[in-house]
Write a structure and sequence with these properties.
This protein is α/β, with parallel strands linked by helices. Among the domains are: 133 residues, Rossmann fold (3-Layer(aba) Sandwich); 105 residues, GMP Synthetase, Chain A, domain 3 (2-Layer Sandwich). The chain is 28% helix and 25% strand. Strands 11-10-12-13-14-15-16 form a seven-stranded mixed β-sheet, sandwiched between helices. Strands 17, 18, 19, 20, 21 and 22 form a six-stranded antiparallel β-sheet that branches. A five-stranded parallel β-sheet has the order 4-3-5-6-7, sandwiched between helices. The longest helix is centred in the N-terminal third of the chain and has 17 residues. Pfam families: AMP-binding, AMP-binding_C. Keywords: Ligase. One of its GO terms (molecular function) is medium-chain fatty acid-CoA ligase activity. Belongs to the ATP-dependent AMP-binding enzyme family.
Length: 513
């Protein structure tokens, strides 16, 4: 017999519920319980609907980590619309591009980004809502207070939930379309890998426009009914103090944050005993930084992933981290992995480096309005090309060797910059190092190393080369070395290799410099 559509139902206990009085979000003097969050989300969803947001529309958010980010995310999802968090560290031109590319019909922004919004320009056919509105903008609190009933929209797992713009280190960024199912399965993978509790107190310090900030720790903690504290601005001393003051149990971060904290003058006297898990990802971390955390008894785990995988692909385990301090661990439970060679023929996942392929319910289906690039990102149907070269040890632990596009072919030999960089930063005097390829008449391509020396340390090229030659084959040692005060990085700490390649090509033309 055919049953009618009964809708969502009205029985209050139709779902298992988190204790509504438990704290969901906390920030400065503001605390929001799960009941309070549900009310705020319903009101804001009603306001967005009243202002014309419909299922499938895009609602952009521009601002630092804040409770309003979560309210807007969940309210947008309740409307059946798509949330678009934007990087507030970008230029007005870049923000304008993302607003136009996503076709956002509504923009919510915090007070600190008012000037940026003004320079980027408003939405011609949309609304702008602000926590501290300028002329022509709507007031966030007033709109939520005047809201009517929240929309009753049926959301399917395959429906788009989020547009996350990739870092754009190689050109204009493109938006990965993550569905409700992608985010849900990533959360399930995290919970299968980690012991996340409803009593956890997590800091959200990685930016929420980045997959690490949202997908690791944050959403899994909220799923379990724990408390999340968004941090507007990263300051290593403030974070260290907050861990001890609030009994913080977990957070996710990018490696530069971990390094800044363990270098801070308060590091040795900070009580870290409440921490049960610290995850990091987004880029490699120097082994000395990982050891600094592990030596304090902190359960530090590297997670490997990418925006397109929502983001988790693999993660270290507590049992093996001491023996593999900077390894990418093992695949998540609902993640399939494979590998291909340069000609896209299947390769075994073993000691020989090969490009990693990934598939699973957490892997996205494509980029926003980029059908050709989306199609090119997959092989053999649903296998996503990560673009990362990995090596898997006999014990099953993976090591990310490098990006395929960053590999240098010198005299017919493959040189992976990440391998050279990892050796370089073992030298106490080296603060950071980046290696890129530069054209060479004799070898076709050679390496150029950009080296940042630690403050107060002294290092010359001869000593630097001697260190590399002690640990690497001679063909892997960069032909050119350039000492610099800093490396160009994007908002999430990744090195902008495009700029370094251009500088290297200009400076070391055919090895004449």
């Amino acid at each position: 017999m055919n049953l009618p559509d009964f809708g969502l139902g009205s029985w209050p206990a139709r779902r298992a519920r988190i204790n509504p009085a438990r704290t969901a979000l906390v920030q400065a003097d503001r605390t929001l319980t799960y009941a309070g969050l549900a009310d705020r989300v319903a009101r804001l969803a009603g306001a967005l609907t009243r202002l014309g947001v419909r299922p499938g529309d895009r609602v952009a958010y521009l601002g630092v980590n804040d409770i309003t980010v979560f309210e807007t995310l969940f309210a947008t999802a309740r409307c059946g619309a798509i949330f678009v968090p934007l990087n507030y560290r970008l230029s007005p031109t870049e923000i304008r591009y993302m607003l136009d590319d996503s076709g956002a019909t509504a923009l919510v922004h915090s007070a600190d980004t008012g000037d940026l919004v003004a320079e980027a320009g408003s939405l011609p056919d949309g609304v702008v809502i602000a926590t501290d509105p300028a002329e022509g903008e709507l007031d966030f609190e007033a709109e939520a207070a005047e809201a009517g009933p929240a929309p009753d929209v049926a959301i399917q797992l395959e429906d788009p939930c989020l547009l996350l713009y990739t870092s754009g280190t190689t050109g204009r960024p493109k938006a990965a379309v993550l569905t409700h199912g992608n985010l849900t399965w990533n959360t399930v993978n995290q919970l299968a890998h980690l012991d996340v509790l409803g009593t956890d107190k997590a800091l959200c310090i990685a930016p929420l426009f980045h997959c690490v900030g949202l997908g690791q720790i944050t959403l899994p903690t909220l799923f379990k009914g724990g408390s999340v504290e968004p941090v507007a601005k990263f300051d290593p001393g403030t974070i260290l103090a907050r861990i001890g003051e609030a009994g913080i149990t977990s957070f996710s971060a990018v490696p530069t944050m971990l390094e800044m904290m363990c270098r801070h003058e308060d590091w040795d006297r900070t009580d870290l005993s409440s921490l049960t898990c610290v995850l990091y990802g987004g880029s490699p971390v120097a082994e000395r930084v990982a050891r600094a955390w592990l030596d304090r008894g902190v359960k530090l785990l590297q997670g490997y992933g990418m925006t397109e995988a929502s983001p988790g692909v693999s993660m270290a385990t507590h049992e093996g981290t001491l023996d593999h301090p900077v390894a990418a661990g093992v695949p998540h439970f609902f993640t399939d992995v494979a590998a291909v060679g340069p000609d896209l023929t299947p390769e075994p996942l073993g000691g020989t480096p090969a490009e990693l392929l990934v598939r699973g319910p957490h892997v996205f289906g494509g980029y926003w309005n980029r059908p050709d690039e989306s199609k090119a990102s997959f092989v053999s149907g649903d296998w996503f090309r990560t673009g990362d070269v990995v090596r898997v040890d006999d014990d099953g632990w993976a090591h990310v060797v490098d990006r395929v596009k960053d590999m240098i072919i010198s005299g017919g030999e493959n040189v992976y910059p990440a391998e050279v960089e990892a050796v370089a930063v073992r030298l106490d005097e080296v603060d950071a190092c980046a290696v890129v390829g530069v054209p060479d008449d004799r070898w076709g391509e050679v390496g150029a190393a950009f080296v940042v020396v630690r403050p107060g340390a002294e290092l010359d090229e001869t000593a630097f080369r001697a260190h590399l030659e002690q640990h690497l084959a001679r063909y892997k040692v960069p032909k050119h070395v350039w000492f610099t005060d800093a490396l160009p990085r994007n908002a999430t700490g990744k090195i902008r290799r495009v700029e370094l390649r251009a500088l290297a090509a200009e400076t070391f033309t055919n090895g004449t410099a």
